[in-house]
Design brief:
The complex is a heterodimer of chains A (105) and B (748).
Chain A (H helix, E strand, L loop, with lengths): L16 E14 L18 H6 L12 E4 L4 E3 H10 L12 E4 L2
Antiparallel strand pairs in A: 2-3, 2-4
Chain B lengths: L9 H16 L6 H15 L7 H24 L9 H22 L1 H11 L3 H6 L12 H34 L6 H16 L10 H29 L2 H22 L5 H12 L4 H5 L2 H6 L3 H11 L4 H24 L6 H23 L4 H15 L11 H13 L6 H17 L3 H17 L6 H15 L1 H30 L7 E8 L17 H17 L3 E5 L5 E6 L6 E6 H8 L6 E3 H8 L3 H13 L3 E3 L9 E4 L9 E3 L9 H30 L1 E3 H12 L7 H13 L3 E3 L6 E4 L2
Parallel strand pairs in B: 4-8
Antiparallel strand pairs in B: 3-4, 5-7, 6-7, 9-11, 10-11
Classes of the chains: A alpha+beta (105), B mainly alpha (748).
Pathway (chain B): Protein modification; protein ubiquitination
Subcellular location (chain B): Nucleus
GO molecular function (chain B): ubiquitin ligase complex scaffold activity; ubiquitin protein ligase binding
């Protein structure tokens, strides 16, 4: 096409189609194996039950209820888990000793 | 003079004192020195030795007063020797003299009053508790004694005559339209008030004489007169004229009452008047009610309101009901026959017109009476929430939400006007029962506006969300707020990302704008990821962004929603170059033609991993736009797709319309169905919450509580609540109690 004699495209090697602008949309999810927090039975994407009841939110107006992953790779609401470990320092799902692998941000 | 008690003979002092008393009471001039002497005479008698003569002085004075009043009656009131015109006049003159005289006499006897009589008087507390043994022999202060004697010998004797004359006087005033001469009015007024004044000193029941003697007969006579008048009016007047007349008469009568009567009678006479002219004639007044309302005869309605205002609410109900029905039928007429594309605009604006019109009318005619305002509310609510038929859902919530969408989308309307319209829109919104349906539609439309950047202004968007929050509370707008926040966070993120790119000297070659949305907060229908092999042109951008994002946040994963992305592609293969806005899938398809001019549908689909439905939905508009040519109408399999090399367009920048942005009937249906699902969940949650708090509850009480909880967002039908109760029994949240069929208990 580019060397089509009828086409008065300049000789410089410009592509026929160039992306100029792209408006795209994506969802973010917590990178979890199970969508539901096993402690409060609420979707991890939503705030935990307590936070929903208290209507907690950060300065941005977002609900400030993040997710925490244990070494066992099980995940829960951070609020739920920090209450849980006060009674029992094991993962509620696999009974392994609980230690935090990472926190959602 | 000495204050020392001395021995005196009563008969020495009394004739002198009696003589002065007579002068005082007849208002004859008394010298200061004589007054003083008499004053001390009273004192001397009261403190006389060896025995005080106060009692004797009292009884002699009483006797004197009795004599005096009787004399006045016969000599001054009953005879008209000096040619005085009539009884009222004579009574009035005599009373004026006597009432003044007795006041002076009271002063003269001040020592007796204060030292001798006050001591005997029962105290206030005693009289308050009513343990008063009405001792006939009880002595009164001289002023009071005088008045009592007047009542006894003068008023009682003349009562019926006096009242007859007064009533004649009032009748004459009525007959002459209130033009009775001033002097006469003063006399009648004086006589009437003498009935009050004569008992004014009494602590309780001071109006009793006035009421028994005069007020009763007066009210009766007036009532008869009013009935008579009303009858006369009925014979010659239309309803409209009758009401005007009644208003005039009420006004005159209240002025007349002020002119003649004691203030305590004014409301009673007014009530009598209203009774006879209005309550008794309601049938007649209402006889043209529906015509007046339907023709909106403001003056008549205004008069009717004035006439009906004082009577109890229940009696007004006919006017109010007629008014309500009238608004309702006008409302229905204006919204029920709507058709076409812009039905939502017409619906809201027509309804608003009706609302504004009647709001204005109520302010103008009915003084913003709350009864009428609530009738307006009821009428509007019933029009707005009416279902076309039993089966069809009410679509108002949808219309109102779409109306907001139209306003908030980019347009040429100025901001102030949009703001005003949004505010007005809330008026209609408040009447919607299915607020949850509205919320569903509104949030979906908001999501579309935000994602496709169609909003006129973010301020207007935020303003609207705040209005909704005000009307329905925080819960209602929670999700809307989250969407809003995502967008502003994304804008921020994009700026940061671009700076990051610049800092690292990376040029992606495209203008990238990425919106990162919180999953679950956006009502985007099915969020199923459609399989798609991302062309390498996009891949670099995506990777750069994801890397950056993961550095910023941890524990998050991104899912790209390509079906909602769009971009601009520069076409350089034609005579002119064009910039075309299209969707990601469409861009991906066109990009395949970089290296060849013709591809089969199957080839395209395989390369991009697109399923049939997505492929056809996006291919169709490109064929229609003539950018691509197809060898057959069936866009599948071996059908060849070719680049149209002869494409021309007057505009160098254009857009390929996409099927996505239009709302399909399926989507509407989907929205409505999802509302139903949400309602069931809401109701179940509400029932569990109530039962958890109450433990045991009767069926009807439970229904009532559920209704009050759901009131903010919707009005559930009872069948739905019952179904939810059933399903909760199945799930063993609650059970029927053993002893009663219509009682539930919570199971922990």
């Amino acid at each position: 096409m580019a060397d089509d004699p009828d086409n008065s495209v300049p000789a410089e090697p410009e592509k026929m189609f160039t992306l100029k602008r792209w408006n795209c949309v994506c969802f973010w999810n917590w990178d979890v194996e199970c969508d539901v927090c096993a402690i409060c039975r609420v979707q991890v994407m939503d705030s935990c039950l307590r936070c929903q009841a208290d209507n907690k939110r950060d300065v941005m107006g977002r609900q400030d209820c993040v997710v925490v992953w244990g070494e066992c790779n099980h995940s829960f609401h951070h609020c739920c888990m920090s209450l849980w470990v006060k009674q029992n320092n094991r993962c509620p799902l696999c009974q392994q000793e609980w230690s935090i692998q990472r926190m959602g941000k | 003079m000495s204050l020392k008690p001395k021995i005196v003979e009563f008969v020495d002092v009394w004739p002198r004192l009696r003589c002065i008393a007579e002068s005082v009471i007849t208002l004859t001039k008394v010298e200061r020195s004589v007054w003083n002497t008499s004053f001390s005479d009273v004192y001397t008698l009261c403190v006389a030795q060896p025995e005080p003569m106060a009692d004797r002085l009292y009884s002699e004075t009483k006797h004197f007063l009795e004599q005096h009043v009787q004399e006045m009656l016969t000599k001054k009131v009953l005879t008209d020797e000096d040619g005085r015109p009539d009884l009222l006049q004579r009574y009035y003159t005599t009373w004026m003299e006597y009432s003044q005289g007795i006041k002076y006499l009271h002063q003269l006897y001040i020592y007796l009053n204060q030292q001798h009589i006050k001591k005997q008087k029962i105290t206030d507390t005693e009289s308050f508790y009513g343990n008063l043994s009405s001792d006939a022999a009880e002595q009164m202060e001289i002023g009071e004694l005088g008045l009592d004697i007047w009542r006894l010998y003068m008023v009682e004797y003349l009562a019926s005559e006096l009242v007859r004359h007064i009533l004649e006087g009032i009748a004459a005033d009525r007959a002459s339209n209130g033009s009775l001469d001033h002097h006469r009015v003063q006399i009648i007024n004086g006589v009437i008030h003498s009935f009050v004044e004569v008992q004014d000193y009494k602590k309780t029941g001071s109006l009793k004489l006035y009421q028994e003697l005069f007020e009763g007969p007066m009210l009766e006579a007036s009532g008869a007169y009013y009935t008579d008048e009303a009858n006369k009016l009925l014979q010659r007047c239309s309803v409209s004229e009758y009401m005007q007349e009644v208003i005039r008469i009420l006004e005159y009568e209240s002025r007349r009452a002020q002119k003649f009567l004691h203030v305590s009678s004014l409301p009673k006479l007014r009530k009598q008047c209203e009774e006879k002219f209005i309550n008794d004639r309601l049938g007649f007044i209402y006889s043209e009610c529906s015509e007046m309302v339907s023709q909106e005869r403001r003056q008549d309605l205004r008069n009717m309101y004035i006439v009906l205002k004082p009577i109890p609410d229940t009696l007004k109900s006919e006017l109010i009901t007629t008014f309500l029905e009238h608004i309702k039928s006008e409302g229905l007429a204006t919204v029920s026959s709507l058709k076409g594309e812009n039905i939502h605009i017409a619906f809201v604006e027509n309804m608003l017109k009706v609302h504004q019109k009647y709001q204005e009318l109520i302010a103008d005619v009915f003084e913003n009476d709350s009864l009428f305002l609530s009738a307006l509310d009821k009428a509007c609510a019933s029009v707005i929430n009416r279902r076309p038929t039993e089966r069809q859902p009410c679509r108002s919530a949808e219309y109102v939400a779409k109306y907001c969408d139209t306003l908030l989308k980019k347009s040429k309307t100025c901001e102030a006007e949009i703001d005003q319209k949004l505010t007005n829109n809330i008026t209609i919104f408040k009447y919607i029962e299915d607020k949850d349906v509205y919320q569903k539609f509104y949030s979906r439309l908001l999501a579309k506006r935000l994602i496709h950047e169609q909003s006129q202004s973010m301020d207007a968007e935020e303003g609207m969300i705040n209005r909704l929050k005000q009307a329905c509370g925080y819960e209602f707008t929670n999700k809307l707020h989250r969407m809003f926040t995502d967008i502003s966070v994304s804008t921020d993120l994009n700026n940061k990302f671009n700076t990051h790119l610049k800092d690292n000297n990376v040029d992606l070659g495209i203008n990238l704008s990425i919106k990162v949305l919180q999953a679950g907060a956006w009502p985007l229908g099915s969020t199923q990821v459609i399989p798609f092999a991302v062309p390498q042109e996009f891949e670099k951008s995506i990777k750069m962004f994801e890397d950056y994002y993961h550095k910023l946040f941890s524990g998050r994963k991104l899912t790209w929603l390509h079906h909602m992305c769009h971009g601009e592609l520069k076409l350089s293969h034609l005579k002119k170059s064009y910039i075309v806005t299209m969707q990601t899938y469409q861009m991906a398809i066109i990009l395949l033609f970089e290296t060849c001019d013709s591809l089969s549908c199957r080839e395209i689909q395989n390369t991009l991993q697109l399923n049939d439905e997505t492929f056809q939905k996006h291919m169709q508009p490109m064929i229609e736009s003539k950018l691509l040519n197809a060898s057959s109408e069936n866009l599948a399999g071996e059908t060849r797709i070719e680049l149209n090399l002869d494409y021309t367009n007057k505009r160098t920048k254009f857009k390929i319309s996409s099927a996505l942005q239009k709302e399909t009937p399926q989507e509407v249906e989907h929205t409505i169905n999802s509302v139903d699902e949400d309602r069931k969940l809401f109701l179940q949650a509400a029932i569990v919450r109530i039962m958890k708090a109450r433990k045991v509850l009767k069926h009807n009480a439970l229904i009532q509580e559920v209704l009050s909880l759901s009131k903010v967002s919707f009005t559930p039908n009872i069948a739905m609540i019952k179904k939810c109760v059933e399903s909760l029994i199945d799930k063993q949240y609650i059970e029927r109690t053993a002893n009663s069929g219509d009682e539930y208990s919570y199971m922990a």
